[in-house]
């Protein structure tokens, strides 16, 4: 690998700062060498804070032969049109989750890989948390026995802060509200841990007093291809939490982080809990497992850098990302049909048929 891989970043809001902070002077695999926003004020402020040179327009960034990949941290509806431009410039694509505002656009982004020979990386970083990886190791090694059930929650208070000036206020820009903004993280995690998902059923409600269009409470049940079940709950009007429990015939594991450290994942190990409870032993005999230091944001961008060199997808690929979006759309369909169970493959195939692919 010719290191460091040089990247550009587009959309200079809060999340661009989180990602840039995660790799600045901390990664020898990549370097962010150019930034762009339509706002001159944001460009100037970003350059001042991080020392990343700004370009005056997106085309200038795409024309730079040294830049191998572009990080997109823009509103969801901009993912597809900007990703297409990046691919046409023969540069690799990183986009924040969800892969796109709609499943149609997500599938279009996925098709860019074969059409232009580029890779697509999507920011489903939660599966890269050290605690999640340790649970996966315990599942794969058989220490939990046959896994029969998984439950997860991702909640925070952001729906109490929504205003008509924020894009997450609107149904067409943030479908399902917390379903597409929070639950989708856990949909990807459960898909990673549990394998193929076949069906979902969901309920949702709107309880935030601010009056946004989107729902802010949801609960979704999941059936996996091998018969195990799962559940993802989310409240967008509560203190923040990210938690996961996996139940197997030989043991269960519980992982929980302090959501206050989400933007500084290198500190997660200092404010997280991971334990295993084995066999018939009670809660008092649970075994706490130390969580090593890690940084899911640096890890995902380093995976992206590797894909920029190899031109091959990594595990944060478009196909996995579109499965998470398909689960959101299946859940939305279920909500509209008062909790009816929806087949996820049907949602994908119907969308492809509508697109003529």
Describe the structure.
The protein has helices at residues 14-23, 40-50, 58-63, 79-88, 103-116, 130-140, 178-194, 296-310, 318-336, 344-355, and strands at 5-10, 30-36, 69-72, 92-95, 120-122, 147-155, 197-205, 217-224, 229-235, 241-248, 251-258, 272-278, 287-288, 342-343. It has two domains: 5-125 and 298-315, Rossmann fold; 127-294, Dihydrodipicolinate Reductase, domain 2. It is globular, with a radius of gyration of 20 Å. It has 357 residues and is of the alpha/beta class. The longest helix is centred in the last third of the chain and has 19 residues, at 318-336. Helix 4 packs parallel to helix 5 (103-116), helix 7 packs across helix 9 (318-336) and helix 9 packs across helix 10 (344-355). The chain is 35% helix and 24% strand. The chain is built from ten helices and 14 strands. It has a nine-stranded mixed beta sheet. Strands 2-1-3-4-5 form a five-stranded parallel beta sheet, sandwiched between helices.
Task: Give the topology.
Layout: E1 5-10, H1 14-23, E2 30-36, H2 40-50, H3 58-63, E3 69-72, H4 79-88, E4 92-95, H5 103-116, E5 120-122, H6 130-140, E6 147-155, H7 178-194, E7 197-205, E8 217-224, E9 229-235, E10 241-248, E11 251-258, E12 272-278, E13 287-288, H8 296-310, H9 318-336, E14 342-343, H10 344-355
Parallel strand pairs: 1-2, 1-3, 3-4, 4-5, 6-9
Antiparallel strand pairs: 6-10, 7-8, 7-14, 8-9, 10-11, 11-12, 12-13
Helix pairs in contact: 4-5, 5-9, 7-9, 9-10
Rg over alpha carbons: 20 Å
Biggest sheet features: 9 strands, mixed
Number of strands: 14
CATH superfamily of the largest domain: Dihydrodipicolinate Reductase, domain 2
Overall number of domains: 2
Structural class by helix and strand composition: alpha/beta
- Tell me the helix content: 25-40%
Q: Please tell me the CATH architecture of the largest domain by its name.
A: 2-Layer Sandwich
In order across it, which strands form the biggest sheet?
13-12-11-10-6-9-8-7-14
What gap, in angstroms, lies between the N and C termini?
35 Å
Fraction of residues in β-strands:
15-25%
The SSE string, one letter per element, is EHEHHEHEHEHEHEEEEEEEHHEH
Number of helices: 10
Rounded average pLDDT: 95
| CATH fold type of the largest domain | Dihydrodipicolinate Reductase, domain 2
Low-confidence stretches: none
CATH class of the largest domain: Alpha Beta
> Can you tell me the overall shape?
globular
